[in-house]
Amino acid sequence: MITQKMKYALKALMELAAARAGDGRPLRIEEIAAKSGTPKRFLEHILLEIRNAGFIASVRGRHGGYVLIKDPREVSLSELMRLIDGPIAPLPCLSRRAYQRCEDCPDENACRLRRVFAQVFWSYLVLIDSLTLADLVVDPVSGSAQEIAQQIGI
C-alpha cells in the first residue's frame, strides 16, 4: 500500500508533468497544492525530497516555481516509491536496496515465508518497475490486473 505522502507526491508530479507538456512554465507551490489537493506545508517537504533526487528543479524569481526536469517517461514509479516511502519489499530479506536478514530466520533458503512472498513480490515488482509518471499523465493504466499481467507477460 502506498502512503498518503506518496499519493501527494504523485499528484504534484502529475501537475508538473502536465505543465511541462503545456506551456512549460514553472508552477508555484500554491498552484500545485491547489490543483493536487495537497496541504502546502506538507508539499514543501515532499517537493524538497523530489528536487534533491533530481526529478524537479526550483526556479527563482517573480515567475519562479517548480518544473519537472526529467521526461515523464523516465520517471520510474518504483524509484519514486523508494524515494518517498522507502523499501517496497514485503520482507527485509527480499529488498534489493535495503536487504536485511530476518532475525528470526535460521536459513533463508529453507524459509517458506520468503519463498511465497518472493513470488508475489517479484510479480509486483515487474509491473511496478514498468510504470512511469507518463503512465499516470498520458496513458492511465486500465483494465483488470489479469489483463495488465498478460500485457507484460507474467
Give a structural overview:
The relative contact order is 0.14. The chain has a two-stranded antiparallel ribbon with strand order 1-2. By secondary structure, the chain is mostly helical. It folds into two domains: 4-68, Orthogonal Bundle (Arc Repressor Mutant, subunit A), CATH 1.10.10; 76-152, no CATH class. It has helices spanning 4-21, 29-36, 40-52, 77-85, 112-130, 133-137, 145-152; strands at 56-59, 65-68. Helix 1 crosses helix 2 (29-36), helix 1 packs across helix 3 and helix 1 (4-21) crosses helix 4.
The largest β sheet comes out as: 2 strands, antiparallel
Going across the major beta sheet, what is the strand order?
1-2
Number of strands: 2
| Multimeric state | single chain
Distance between the termini: 21 Å
Number of helices: 7
What is the general shape? elongated
Structural class: mainly alpha
Number of domains: 2
Instruction: Give the helix level as a range of percent.
Output: 40-55%
Radius of gyration: 18 Å
Q: Kindly state the mean pLDDT as a whole number?
A: 86
Percentage of residues in strands: 5-15%
Query: From N to C, what is the helix and strand string?
Result: HHHEEHHHH
